Amino acid sequence: MLIYTKIGKFLKQSKLNKISRLGPVWMRFCIMLLLIVQSYFAFSGETLTIDSSYQEINLKDYCYHYEDTTNELSINEALKANWNKLTGILAFASNKYVQWIRYNLSNPYNEDMERVIFIPYHHIREIDVYVVTDSSIKNVCKTGIKRLFSDKHIKSIGYPIKIKLEPNQTISVILRLNHLYSPFRATSYLMTNDRVEKVILKNNSLIYFWRGIILFTLIFSLILYWFVRLKLFLYYFFLNMGVGLFIASQIGDYFLFFNIDRTDITSSITFTGSILVILFFPLLINSITPIKERNKVLWKWMYRFIYGMLVFYIITLFPPIRESKIIYFSHFYIMIVSALVFLLQLILLFKSLLYKERNAIPLFIIYSLYVLAVFTDVIFPNIGIAVDSPYVYNSLLIASFIEIFIFMIFMGREALNIYKDRALLLNKQQEHQKEMIVSMVKGQEEERNRAGRELHDSIGANMAIIKQKIGKENKELYKIVSQTIESVRNLSHGLVTPMVKKDEFIDELKEMCHLFSSDELEVHVYFHKWPEIDNTEITNHLYRITQELLQNAAKHSKAQNVYFQFIGENDSNLSLIYEDDGIGFNYSEIIPKGLGLKNIKNRVTLLNGSLQIDSSEQGKGTTIVIEVQY
Amino acid sequence: MKILILDDHSLFSEGLGKILNGHFTGLYLNKFKSIAELKNQKTDFNSYDLFISDIELPGEDIFKLLCSIKLEHPQLPILIISMHNKLSVIKKCKELKVEGYILKDDHELIIKVVENLLSGKEYYSEKVKQTLNILNKKEELLTPKEEEIIALLAKGKNNHEIAEKLFISYNTIKTHRKNINRKLGVTSTGEIVKYYFENYIQ
């Protein structure tokens, strides 16, 4: 019955109408039989009559398929084979042999028809295109990634194959697809020239955009890692590197740099991309929400599977293995493991959700969307649910945009938190340091005050009485006691914090410098526009600093002259300049040990001032400049 | 003769009293330990010939008292006997026109200074006078380093060269330049050089 209807259809469409007028019935019948037999070879199967109103037709309904188990059939042999109608889209998940596809096309019009068979998937090793007419079998095109691209007009992803139909001609387009042992897809569309150009343009625009985004993301995450050193950014970088490599190899970006891929390096690049994604995606998620902690066992097992994938990956890096049967098995393993890993992560995230971990909810939603996108692109087509559009990589690209964008938000948040924490920590450290200095200085002051007062009140006064009672008779003792009183006075004077009233500061300092002067050391002090300072903290610190400097000068500098300058400016800046003509000192040696210098430094810090020390051991003296605001 | 003694150190007041009694006859000494005590007794300063006091009275402001004495009883001579040889204290006393100031261990001078004050003269012990002299110390306008700097500037050196020559850092040189400008009241290098030639080259 089928054959009758087929013949009937055929009769209507063909030139047999003309033949029917030719000769006797038996001749007609024989010719018809011959033609039928011939056409059975040539045109077995349903034919697509190309309606010029359609710009684009999905050829899946007109697809006939033959699996070449020898992998060696020629076109003539293939034509004689038993072709089966293929249901569903052209996706070969389990692909062990060379695949032959055929489409029967017919041009119902009285003029030439030019069309393009567009195969949007790019990763196919070899494609041989034959056009079979009543009279001839022609090899129209040899393409695929293992063939040179430069002499083809292919500058886009996918393969646009030009075919031409003469008026009222029926042809059979036969594709020999050699992509042994690796799964591939070859859904084809019949399009007008304009339509193909539009599709290619749209694809290209999206791909340019995608390339820009991926490059930006990679650079951005590297920069972030460089500055913030958070592992999160490193994982993000590798994840997107993987995504980028995977998608780029699928869409044929390899051919931006090379003209031919003789050993199918594209597969390795795709595999590298997948490995990176699978390795780093869980790590990335874990640094946003702690899934590893909660599920140590599941995590361990997940990574055991992943390491198995790594083994396969290393093996398949070798070119001869890439096109051998081993790939067939590794692909199965990879598909199963990838699905498992993705699902395991989903479970881990779900558990986090239950425990109400931070960031778990948004991550769970995003991850679900992501998995959905992957399923849409990879798994549904293999089951037969297909998206009827030549933009076959869109779902992948859009999934990558979603992933990039969403994780960028998380990363931005983490980076901000890190900076805030660091700033806070730094602040706290500085405050703590300041507090320590304050308490040190205060403690010291209190001690000194106590000692000074004790000295003055009891010892000094008592000494005066002793002196009185000794009288002038015992000259030596008298002298000693006098000197002792002098020392006690000076000492206590030096120890007690001077409650220097604002108008007494200059006199106090002049006196101090005078007291330090001796035969060996002369101290000069100069005041220039020194204001009356209300803030006793400032005056006290300056007093103590000057004291410290004088003590150092007397003890260490071997100087003969010391110059102090106290200079006030109109804009509330105060300068204290110390200069001596002594032997100088080595700053880096002294600064860890010298208590006096440390004291000065502490006090300058407490005053929020600046300290500059110029000294060397070359005997050219020492200059110290302290500047303070008040 | 009535002498008023104010010192919180009673042992000292006793000693002082002994010395004075040992030299002067007909002395009437009134000793107080604090200004509060003095005020409580409603002391009449007019009846005294001499007021001897310490500077250091815990928790009390002696200068306020001295000020009021000088205002209300200007004819009463004041003698300060103190442990302190502090410039600011002595300066204040001098400004208040306190007649006498000696240190507590100058006790051999006590008689002399009391005699001077009672006869209307002033007496500041040597040590105290030396301290006061500090105020009179005159300093040069520019420090030796600053003089070196302007000499080098007059020779045409720039800040970096000066820093190298004098073994000081560049920043310190800039600070010195700033101060020189301020002290001399100038703003430009030319004015500095002018000052140098006017004042340092004979």
Describe this structure in words.
The complex is a heterodimer of chains A (about 625) and B (about 200). Chain A has about 625 residues and is of the alpha+beta class. Chain A contains 18 helices and 18 strands. Chain A folds into 4 domains: about 40 residues, no CATH class; about 150 residues, Immunoglobulin-like (Sandwich); about 210 residues; about 130 residues, Heat Shock Protein 90 (2-Layer Sandwich), CATH 3.30.565. Helices cover about 55% and strands about 15% of the residues of chain A. In chain A, helix 7 packs antiparallel against helix 9, helix 12 runs antiparallel to helix 13 and helix 13 runs antiparallel to helix 14. The longest helix of chain A is centred in the last third of the chain and has 77 residues. Chain A is rod-shaped. The termini of chain A are far apart. The radius of gyration of chain B is 26 Å and the shape is elongated. Chain B is built from 10 helices and 6 strands.
How much helical structure, as a percent, in the residues of chain A?
Answer: 55-70%
Mean pLDDT of chain A: 82
Major sheet description of chain B? 6 strands, parallel
Shape of chain A: rod-shaped
- Major beta sheet, strand line-up of chain B: 2-1-3-4-5-6
Q: Kindly, what is the distance between the CA atoms of the first and last residues of chain A, rounded to a whole number of angstroms? A: 110 Å
Briefly note the structural class of the backbone of chain A. alpha+beta
Q: Summarize the largest interface: chains and residue counts.
A: A-B, 44 and 35 residues
End-to-end C-alpha gap of chain B: 64 Å
Largest sheet of chain A: 7 strands, mixed
Keywords summarizing the entry:
heterodimer, A: 630 residues, alpha+beta, Immunoglobulin-like, 4 domains, 7-stranded mixed sheet, 5-stranded mixed sheet, 18 helices, 18 strands, 17% strand, rod-shaped, disordered N terminus, B: 202 residues, alpha/beta, Rossmann fold, Arc Repressor Mutant, subunit A, 2 domains, 6-stranded parallel sheet, 10 helices
